[in-house]
Backbone:
């Protein structure tokens, strides 16, 4: 008798529920937009004594059946895997999940919802590098300094909410280039805040905790007397003992003219 792997041997560190904005192409070629449920998958960990036995891969395969509706799979739960996992309340409605791999794309691609079915696929990404010396030189512009407003931790939450609404308003009617489906996670409800929360315990014990977690570039013509902005950034800190002090950009918004 073959013993089936137990998911107690490995665990997903976090499965984070996210708001997803989705563009789908219909059979007629038109695109529809919807707000759906997505998930961010954090670290996968297997105790050292249990590694090399396929437990983590099997657990990730089972995770598809917890996060997504069973109706979304082309066939039923594989009989060779025994009973399907229990779906906790609030799960089972995700249309997409995202993870970042430290072990390359093959492991997670092989962790599909059934034998021979792909799991997570690697997609292209864009990397942007800023020259710090050039940026520091620009900050010497006295006229620009007065346009910046620093944001506290609570104020960054307000701007994430505003940014999410703007994403919904400014979303294109179809992806560029056209594909079957495109999506993004909205920055509110924990997406941008997660990196702040992760280090909060350490930051709060500093003798002088940082007072600001963001900045916005005020618009030249605010409406209704309320601050408005074409650009803002929020950040978090990595201040672990023995590691370099790091500023993590958690959200960056700017118009095309400012980017260029």
Residues:
């Amino acid at each position: 008798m073959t013993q089936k792997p137990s998911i107690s041997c490995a665990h997903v560190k976090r499965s984070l529920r996210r708001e997803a904005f989705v563009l789908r192409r219909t059979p007629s070629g038109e695109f529809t937009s919807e707000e759906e449920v997505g998930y961010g998958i954090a670290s996968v960990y297997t105790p050292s004594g249990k590694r090399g036995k396929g437990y983590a891969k099997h657990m990730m395969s089972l995770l598809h059946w917890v996060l997504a509706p069973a109706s979304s799979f082309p066939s039923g739960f594989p009989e060779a895997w025994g009973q399907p996992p229990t779906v906790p309340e609030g799960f089972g409605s995700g249309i997409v999940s995202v993870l970042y791999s430290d072990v390359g794309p093959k492991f997670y691609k092989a962790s599909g919802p059934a034998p021979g079915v792909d799991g997570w696929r690697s997609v292209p990404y864009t990397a942007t590098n800023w020259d710090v010396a050039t940026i520091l030189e620009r900050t010497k512009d006295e006229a620009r300094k007065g346009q910046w407003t620093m944001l506290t931790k609570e104020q960054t939450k307000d701007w994430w909410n505003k940014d999410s609404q703007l994403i919904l308003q400014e979303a294109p009617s179809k992806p560029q280039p056209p594909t079957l489906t495109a999506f993004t996670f909205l920055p509110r409800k924990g997406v941008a805040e997660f990196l702040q929360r992760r280090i909060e315990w350490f930051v709060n014990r500093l003798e002088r905790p940082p007072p600001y977690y963001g900045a916005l570039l005020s618009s030249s013509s605010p409406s209704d007397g309320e601050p408005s902005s074409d650009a803002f950034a929020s950040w978090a800190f990595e201040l672990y003992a023995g590691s370099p002090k790091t500023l993590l950009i958690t959200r960056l918004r700017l118009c095309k003219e400012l980017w260029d």
User: Anything to note?
Assistant: The chain has a mean pLDDT of 83. The first strand starts at residue 11 and ends at 12.
